[in-house]
Design brief:
Helix content is about 15%, strand content about 25%. With about 160 residues, the protein is α/β, with parallel strands linked by helices. The protein is globular and about 35 Å long. It contains four helices and six strands.
């Protein structure tokens, strides 16, 4: 059981960011999609019409995608519902934990099977091209913990959008 807990929680730990870095992150979960997020040109996937107001398409990344949730069941006593960037998690949030050296905080990430999420968290096991998707609410009769376990570990091509 401890092995699964480590995968789900990614050993979330508080990190220290400079105040300038924190102030640069837009914590709002509101973003306007002005065109479909999909590949329009199979021969040249970089040639797309993806547009999200206030963001620019930065490219795609082959990533290892796991899931986490923020209860004490998964994260132990440090589970406080606050991300590494200081965002207080709400049930409606779609958040991903990232390595900020690969995907900057505040970026949007389109994860197949999960949706469009904001990069607002990190964790001890989140290094390189590994991300965690946050499960927050009960769906289909399953708790966030059960949904995180069900998600498992996936290798996916994710799309990244940087804040303008």
């Amino acid at each position: 059981m401890k092995r699964l807990t480590g995968i789900i929680c990614s050993m979330l730990m508080p990190i220290t960011l400079s105040s300038a870095r924190l102030n640069a992150v837009d914590y709002s979960m509101q973003f306007n999609i002005t065109a479909p997020i999909e590949h329009n040109d199979e021969k040249n996937p970089e040639n797309t019409s993806r547009e999200i107001e206030g963001y620019s398409y930065a490219g795609s990344i082959d990533a290892i995608v796991t899931a986490y949730e923020v209860s004490a069941t998964s994260c132990g006593n440090q589970a406080d519902g606050i991300t590494a960037t200081g965002h207080v998690i709400r049930p409606s949030d779609y958040i991903v934990a990232v390595d900020p050296e690969v995907i900057p905080y505040g970026s949007l990430v389109n994860v197949p099977g999960y949706g469009l999420a904001k990069a607002l968290d990190t964790g001890g096991a989140i290094k390189g091209n590994k991300i965690d998707v946050l499960m927050t609410v009960n769906k289909n009769g399953k708790t966030p913990y059960e949904r995180a376990i069900e998600w498992g570990r996936k290798e996916l091509k994710i799309e990244v959008y940087h804040k303008l």
